[in-house]
Amino acid sequence: MSGELERAVQDGELLQVRRVSWWRRSTWVPVWLKSWRGFLAVVLVAPWRFVGAVVRGLVAVARWWRRWVTVRDYREAAESSEKLADKFEPIRTLTLFRWKVTAGVVVASVVLVAVLDLVYGVLWEMVAVAAVGLAVLGRRREGSPGRRAVLAGPRALTWTMDPQVLIDAFRDAKLIGKDESLRLVERARRDGAGWAVTVDLPATRKAADVIRNRDALASALAVDEVQLSVERVRGNGGHAGRVAMWVADADPYATPPVRTPLLEAERWDAWRPVPFGRDARDRRVDLPLVWTSLLVGAIPRQGKTFAARLAAAGLILDPRTRLYVADFKAGKDWDAAGQVAHRFMSGDEAEHVVALVGWLIELVGEVQARYRRMRTLDDVTCPESKVTPAMSRDPGFAVTALFVDEVQVPLEDRTLIKVQDRRVTAGEYIGELLTWLAKKGPAAGLVLVLATQRPDSKTIPSGLRAVLGSRFALRVMDWRDSNIVLGEQMNTRGYDSSRLLAAHKGVGILRPDGETQTDGLAVTVRTYYMPNEDWRAICARGRELREAEGTLTGHAAGQDATLVLDHAAAAKAIGSGVGPVWRPDGLPEPLDAVVGYLGDDLESREFVPTSELADALAVEPTALARQMATLGCRPVRNRTPMEDGEVRRVRGYLTADIRAAALSGDFSSSGDES
């Protein structure tokens, strides 16, 4: 008997436990009913939640009524079709009618409530029903923060990745038409410290136009343009109308800079791209150096020398490379490189310029010797008349780098030197030698890196700029200087380093020559930070590596030798003699002044605007056009980029016509007329 009683008690307890377990696990039972604490919390808070829901319901009804009575839907349709002025009278008439309907409904409702209350006494019941209805309308659903917020006040980044807002932004920036839309390729997602989204533009719309008008799109998205990154998606997964966008939460360059990863590297291979910096999305950007050359341009104190030293750091950590370093700033920025450089000097006097001439002639001779030797090698060792990684292990084909900081100093030097029975200025001679080395040197294993704080057309010859493969432009004064560093019309493609902020030190636009991690034509990069102590540590490590492998030569080994200059061989190599810029004698004005102003640009440019010539020569445009016409050079209209970045048709002269007029030599008629 006691056993049966005990078994019954145990069965009852088990049944109770099962019921409690089912109650807590069931998805049909609300969470707040599964515990006494949750139940009491809901009971205590429920009245306040109910009042809040009723208030939100009242606000929602008021907003709906206001939109209805003001004919907002009809007005927006008229605005989108640009016929608001034509629809003014119908909109006004409909608004008055809806106000009358509102008044009639209010009066009828008041009368109906009064009658029902007098007959049945149900006033509070009707109020309760209305309150419940408003609470249902204004309730918060699970997982939702509430009703859709009405945007007010300043625009913010928190809603820029909404698909409809993104479409409206493209329309506001006039990148797509009012009847066009975007196709979402990849939904907006968090990517680092920002939002990333990929879209397809409508047919015939190009990603290049979006990149060029990035400022307008940033304004439409209510963010600073430095926070917006726009790239065309290339390769198998891209096409001309596919755009990848990334919007940063804050200024991506406001954080402290990152130190170069070369500090952790024991050694480096010159054939590997050098770690150069990070883009706005914090992706690493590497810079290939072998088989190309680099031009770095910026106004003072923007990080130009730091950028050039980053390129040098990777080569310093390769003990097989040979370095030529010329610092015409005459400071201490490059002094540490003297312990690893084959040739090194720091100064801005005439003797330093002449010494550079000797270096360049030495390099011209070495490049020629390498090409002669490559002709004797089989196709397996040297397949393409280029130095290969295997060949560079031979000291005769070692990767050689020439770094010239403040290159404008030697290029503007007017010291006369004698070359093959003729006297030319050192600057012109250096320009010719550098141009030849930039053309012929990369394939022979020569890396040319030039840095300047004066990137204008008069300082760096156009022929030299045209053969420098990689470009890095930090902040400059205007779009013309930016184009001189990055290339013609780069500002019209959306790349203008004059728009970079002065506070963003070390931030510039990189246009690489070679394979990089970026798909676009250029990328905005913040260079790695390498202060003097890190620079000295890298140079000291480079010296240790060279001492261990026995590759310390020249200046670093205390073996500076007087160079034997073979000007004849250099002049023969670089072409038909070396001399001043082409300029025939006896040209009448203003043709002589125009030819003198254009200089090397007469060969590289196709068109020069009349306004540019008038400003440079301080003449009146109409008088200039009349005088040039009498010399056989008439103005034409052509498209050219303006200061605001837009391409417009302006009057000017074709450089071919200017050259033809200068070469004709028949100015007798013009002289008689004048």
What do these coordinates show?
- The protein is an alpha/beta fold and 674 residues long.
- It is 42% helix and 15% strand.
- It contains 22 helices and 19 strands.
- The strands form four sheets. It has a ten-stranded mixed beta sheet. A four-stranded antiparallel beta sheet has the order 1-2-4-3.
- A hairpin with a 4-residue loop joins strand 5 (274-279) and strand 6 (284-287).
- Helix 2 (36-69) crosses helix 5 and helix 17 crosses helix 21 (655-664).
Order of strands in the sheet with most strands: 6-5-16-15-14-7-13-10-8-9
On the 0 to 100 scale, the average pLDDT is: 80
Low-confidence stretches: 8-15, 141-160, 576-582, 668-674
DSSP strand content: 15-25%
Number of extended strands: 19
Shape: elongated
Largest sheet: 10 strands, mixed
Helix content: 40-55%
By helix and strand content, what is the structural category? Answer: alpha/beta
Helices, by number, come to 22
Radius of gyration: 37 Å
| Terminal-residue CA separation | 142 Å
What's the short version?
The chain is α/β, with parallel strands linked by helices and 674 residues long. It has 22 helices and 19 strands.
